[in-house]
Amino acid sequence: MKQNGTLSDSQQMDKIKNINTQEGFTIDEVGDDHLFTSFETPMRAGAFDLDDDSKVKLIEKSFADIMHVLGLDLEDDSLKGTPHRVAKMYVKEIFKGLNPANAPKVALFENKYQYNHMLVERDITLYSNCEHHFVPIFGKAHVAYISNGKVIGLSKINRIVEFFSKRPQVQERLTVQIANYLKEVLGTEDVAVVIDARHLCVSSRGVEDTTSSTVTGTYLGQFANDATREEFLKHIYH
Ligand SMILES: [Zn+2]
């Protein structure tokens, strides 16, 4: 509610309070407890109105501002290219999975051998970034499915893991997004995904726990049955 185009003092305070709390949690609590709101990556309208090169230019400027505020000398030979490098890395590498245009092209094949048991691809290397702190999450993803008539090239499973990893993420959402995507492209209900990963926001700052890892799992269709799930887990925890 604007008054003559400006907010009153109490409205300003309410606005600040809304920014600093989320359903009773402070922004620090939301970050350190890794609370999240949806299995969809929260995107704003018009997220892809700008092309990648325009995004790189804008982020480069913003990142130079951050470095400047921190007190770094952007004239220094070692630092002056950093804003551009970071911007390019954000848009074209570590966050390229935000753009649906970068989704892997998945070709399916007929299940000619009539292999009707589970296929497990384990120890897929995973690099992502925490959406609360923008520092790395890294670990392994283990993926399984039971064919419903179609099979997928094995390297495509890696590509799908990679695509959803290259976003600011929370591990629970990443696990579910990979499972749902596979379910959709393969036309099967029978998909399982386990991720075992370390979060640098937990180990290098905050509670500074350097030994813990976080395990998440989604077991759909037949994988919800004890015997099938156990067979899968036996394969991955060899
Ligand atoms: Zn974090």
Walk me through the structure.
This protein has helices at 9-20, 27-32, 52-70, 82-94, 154-165, 171-186, 200-203, 226-236; strands at residues 21-22, 25-26, 108-110, 118-130, 136-146, 150-152, 168-169, 191-199, 214-219. With 238 residues, the protein is α+β, with helices and mostly antiparallel strands. It folds into three domains: 1-33, no CATH class; 47-94, GTP cyclohydrolase I, N-terminal domain (GTP Cyclohydrolase I, Chain A, domain 1); 107-236, GTP cyclohydrolase I, C-terminal domain/NADPH-dependent 7-cyano-7-deazaguanine reductase, N-terminal domain (GTP Cyclohydrolase I, domain 2). It has a five-stranded mixed sheet with strand order 7-4-5-8-9. A hairpin with a 5-residue loop joins strand 4 (118-130) and strand 5. The radius of gyration is 21 Å and the shape is globular. It starts with 8 loop residues before the first helix and ends with a helix.
Based on the model shown, name its key terms:
238 residues, GTP Cyclohydrolase I, domain 2, binds zinc ion, alpha+beta, GTP Cyclohydrolase I, Chain A, domain 1, 5-stranded mixed sheet
Compose a concise summary of this entry.
This protein has 238 residues and is an alpha+beta fold.
Stretches where pLDDT is under 50 for at least 5 consecutive residues are: 1-5
Bound small molecules, deduplicated: zinc ion
Radius of gyration based on Cα positions:
21 Å
Helix content: 25-40%
Number of E-state strands: 9
The largest β sheet comes out as: 5 strands, mixed
> Order of SSEs, N→C?
HEEHHHEEEEHEHEHEH
Approximate strand percentage: 15-25%
What oligomeric state is this? Answer: single chain
Mean pLDDT over the full residue set:
90
* Overall tally of structural domains: 3
Number of helical stretches of at least 4 residues = 8
Structural class: alpha+beta
Q: CATH topology of the largest domain, which one?
A: GTP Cyclohydrolase I, domain 2
Q: Could you say which overall geometry the principal axes of the C-alpha atoms support?
A: globular
- The CATH architecture designation of the largest domain is 2-Layer Sandwich
Instruction: Give the CATH class of the largest domain.
Output: Alpha Beta
CATH homologous superfamily name of the largest domain?
GTP cyclohydrolase I, C-terminal domain/NADPH-dependent 7-cyano-7-deazaguanine reductase, N-terminal domain
